[in-house]
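ok, trying the design again with the full structure, not the truncated one.
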């Protein structure tokens, strides 16, 4: 049996933090879709900056123990840059967010599926949650790219439910990763 990368068990909290921030963003997107879309975009920008920084940290910490650490690093840099753009120019982002975020969501889903398959190959019990999140992300991303929702309010509510579900899965996966890493071999 192949051993799980040591550093991955130490950074379980990064997955849980990403999930908590994602779920918080989901709740805000559901509650405030029409009346303050600009505020939701700004809140997303802050989320993206923090989430990107966490992904960069995960990629950096696992650069030697995981061959795919650079993927996390690159994803984090792109996400943080997009978040900064959203904070500075929220009105401009509203028009472009459907297609751009659809592409990001699909790519993040592919990354999650890849990590889930790696986790499964070493017997990690949380792989199914990561795979489910990945599939949801790919489907949602493709819908946003090829058939954007007709209204921004509809998109925000749709994405809010997606982010809430995905965030809960990441929090659960983070705590499962913590338990898995702590078990004796």
């Amino acid at each position: 049996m192949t051993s799980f990368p040591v550093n991955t068990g130490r950074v379980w909290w990064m997955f849980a933090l990403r999930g908590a921030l994602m779920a918080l963003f989901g709740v805000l997107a559901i509650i405030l879709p029409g009346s303050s879309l600009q505020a939701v975009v700004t809140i997303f920008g802050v989320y993206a900056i923090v989430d990107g920084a966490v992904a960069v940290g995960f990629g950096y910490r696992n650069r030697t123990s995981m061959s795919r650490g650079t993927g996390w690093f690159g994803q984090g840099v792109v996400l943080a840059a997009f978040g900064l753009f959203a904070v500075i120019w929220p009105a401009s982002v509203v028009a472009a967010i459907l297609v751009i975020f659809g592409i990001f969501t699909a790519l993040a889903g592919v990354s999650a599926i890849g990590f889930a398959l790696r986790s499964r190959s070493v017997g990690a019990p949380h792989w199914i949650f990561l795979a489910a999140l990945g599939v949801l992300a790919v489907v949602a991303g493709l819908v946003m790219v090829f058939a954007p929702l007709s209204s921004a309010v509809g998109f925000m509510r749709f994405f809010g439910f997606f982010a809430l579900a995905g965030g809960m899965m990441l929090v659960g996966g983070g705590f499962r990763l913590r338990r898995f890493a702590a078990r004796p071999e």
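Keeping the full-length input from now on. Residues 18 and 158 are 19 Å apart (CA to CA).
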